[in-house]
From TrEMBL:
Gene3D superfamilies associated with the record: endopeptidase domain like (from Nostoc punctiforme) (3.90.1720.10)
Classification via InterPro entries: NLP_P60_dom, Papain-like_cys_pep_sf, Peptidase_C40
PANTHER family referenced in this protein's UniProt entry, alphabetically: MUREIN DD-ENDOPEPTIDASE MEPH-RELATED
Superkingdom of source: Bacteria
Protein's name in the database: Putative lipoprotein
Species whose genome carries this gene: Thauera chlorobenzoica
């Protein structure tokens, strides 16, 4: 008879250990997921900050240097290279082939947004900042600036968006990377 109360006491003592062991992998998965989200948020924040550091730099067709001027893809490739170490292709059209295609409703800071500004798809690119805004180098006579994606002009010309940052701040799985630093 003594063995029954002893077994019950032992079962009660071990149940928290068993529960903790069962919860362990789930807690680890949660910690990994939170860590990946933090890394994504950090990479996206660095990218947005880098892109915003070019505000006011004059537009220059074919420009890839902040000191002499940037065009839209020059802005994007500089921001990605300097913020997260990714070397992107030179043109907006080539950039549009990278990463994961996402819908307008799925936009997150750091995503690329594409527009048809020259009567051809993917002729202009910018970096989404959040809250319906994006940063870009618009055109001759202009300078790097922030605009609303919902404005009539940009909304009518929106071509799509691509997510290049994966959860581990590398190029997302479906894209191809031309080079890294």
């Amino acid at each position: 008879m003594l063995s029954r109360p002893l077994l019950l006491a032992l079962a009660l003592l071990l149940s928290p250990v068993a529960h903790a062991t069962q919860a362990g992998p789930a807690n680890q998965d949660t910690a990994i997921a939170v860590s990946a989200l933090d890394e994504y948020a950090t990479a996206a924040e660095q990218l947005v900050d880098e892109a915003l550091s070019y505000l006011g730099i004059r537009y220059r067709f074919g420009g890839t240097s902040p000191s002499t001027g940037l065009d839209c893809s020059g802005l994007v490739l500089n921001a990605f290279r300097n913020a997260v170490g990714l070397d992107l292709p030179r043109t907006a059209r080539e950039m549009a082939t990278l990463g994961d295609r996402i819908g307008r409703q799925e936009l997150k800071p750091g995503d690329l947004v594409f527009f048809n500004t020259m009567r051809r798809a993917f002729s202009h690119v910018g970096i989404y900042l959040g809250d319906g805004r994006f940063v870009h180098a618009p055109s001759s006579g202009g300078e790097v600036r922030v605009e609303s994606i919902a404005s009539r002009y940009w909304s009518q010309r929106f071509n799509g968006a691509r997510r290049l940052l994966g959860d581990d701040h590398s190029l997302s799985a479906s894209g191809a990377l031309l080079g890294t630093h």
